[in-house]
Design goal:
TIM Barrel; eight-stranded parallel barrel; two-stranded antiparallel sheet; 13 strands; 33% helix; cytoplasm
Length: 277
């Protein structure tokens, strides 16, 4: 199948150049968001890796109502718009309900469908109808070859500007496993494939603020596996001080560690492209 190139601003997703989707899990205070955005924009220029800034105005799948779920759509999109305008960087955020789509589409460059909701037909189709690029995350419950189903739903709405993101499969209890075969199956759709490496090391059933709620030690290994398998983009949640992050504190990467993490991956990706069949 021919490889699809999906353009996000000046970024050609699916080309031979690795791109980065990065930012805090959830929109927090303005200072935290701006510090993170400025750092990532500067780093993307330094390392010559295209950047799409990510953060969620709402995380509606938190395991307790007591946990922070974001500032809400209006305030969250206001902050994301500020980042987009100040740093001239594309923005991605997720939507959980069809009535959020229009307002989000007015601000962001990519509308993301959360993994848990990838089979929600109305959500996928209504997002696709905006004409925006759609990033569909692979549901933890879905065989990777079945991701063609939500892809077909988006296409039925006349939109083939689609990205697919792997983030692990539920195997057993409260654990995620990244099967490299998934990258193969997602690539067979012909659309660009992204690896959400930080979500893939979360431990279900354990609060994200608990250090046991994520296994950061596996991030470099998994990222290398994804690059070797031919991913087009890397999805990374990062924060100035993960221990104080309001969501996914145990799995986000500190911004101070991002440069040393990315450098070998960029070199590895260039090598993979060179010898790619």
């Amino acid at each position: 199948m021919d490889k699809k190139i999906v353009n996000v601003g000046d970024i050609a997703c699916g080309s031979d150049k690795l791109f980065l989707i990065a930012g805090p899990c959830v929109v927090e205070d303005v200072k935290t968001m701006m510090v993170t955005a400025e750092f990532l924009v500067d780093l993307s220029q330094k390392l010559n890796i295209p950047l799409i800034f990510k953060s969620s105005f709402q995380k509606d799948n938190r395991s307790s109502l007591e946990y922070y779920s974001g500032p809400g759509m209006e305030r969250g999109l206001e902050i994301l718009r500020k980042i987009k305008e100040q740093f001239q960087v594309p923005i991605i955020t997720d939507v959980h309900y069809p009535d959020q789509i229009k307002m989000a589409a007015d601000v962001v460059d990519i509308i993301q469908i959360p993994a848990y909701l990838c089979m929600q037909s109305t959500l996928v189709v209504d997002a696709a109808k905006t004409g925006k690029v759609i990033n569909i995350k692979h549901g933890q419950f879905l065989a990777p070859e079945n991701m063609i189903k939500p892809v077909e739903k988006a296409i039925s709405a006349g939109n083939d500007q689609i990205l697919l993101t792997e983030r692990g499969y539920t195997f057993g209890y409260n654990d995620l496993v990244v099967d490299p075969r998934s990258f193969y199956h997602l690539r067979q759709t012909g659309y660009p494939v992204i690896f959400d490496v930080t979500h893939s090391i979360r431990k279900y059933g354990i609060p994200s603020a608990d250090p046991a709620g994520g296994s950061r030690e596996f991030i470099p290994t998994l990222a290398r596996a994804g690059v070797a398998a031919g991913i087009d983009g890397l999805f990374l949640e990062t924060h100035p001080d993960p221990s104080r992050a309001l969501c996914d504190a145990a799995s986000q990467m500190c911004i101070d560690d991002v440069e040393s993490f990315l450098k070998p991956l960029i070199e590895f990706h260039d090598l993979e492209v060179k010898y790619r069949d």
